[in-house]
Amino acid sequence: MYRTPNTPEVRVPRLTGLMAVDAREAAEACGLLLAAPDRPDFHLAVVDHVVRQYPPAGAEVPRGAVVTVWFDFGEGEGGGGAGVREPRRGGPPPGGMRRELDEPGDPYAVLGSP
Q1: Which of 57, 63, 89, 104 reaches 20 to 30 Å from 18, CA-CA?
Q2: C-beta separation of 48 from 21 below 8 A
Q3: 38-86 confidence digits (pLDDT tens)
Q4: Which residues 6+ apart lie within 8 Å of 74 measured at CB?
Q5: What sign does the CA torsion over 64, 51, 73, 24 have?
Q6: Which of 61, 50, 46 is nearest to 8 (CA)?
Q7: In terms of pTM, does the model score above 0.85?
Q8: CA separation for the pair 99, 89 (Å, rounded)
Q9: Which residue segments constitute the domains of the chain, with CATH numbers given?
Q10: Do 62 and 89 form a contact (C-beta atoms < 8 A)?
Q11: Omega of the bond prior to 55 within 30 degrees of 0, cis?
Q12: Does the structure show a pLDDT above 50 at 1?
């Protein structure tokens, strides 16, 4: 594990996008503590991804400071990203070719018969 020099101030690493286990290791390597208000079982979380952090990456904070991370988007912050997804009806629209073509007559009619 990488140990930072014993300075009173450390830079906050970029934790956004990391899995919970990787975020904990990155913070520990810098001498920081993590808190997750939306995950009471944060110490057990492994594969959840960090979506937000405070203080932001690159900020200088005292060694041993707490960095807060969130794993869920807040109200109005996203989460959907691609807009509303409505279920599709399967298959072509009702009517098919009949909408475009006239109904055929007798399919066995002989041409030219009265």
Answers
A1: 63
A2: no
A3: 888 888 888 889 999 999 999 999 999 999 999 876 666 555 555 556 6
A4: 52
A5: negative
A6: 61
A7: no
A8: 18
A9: 9-70 (3.30.10.20)
A10: no
A11: yes
A12: no
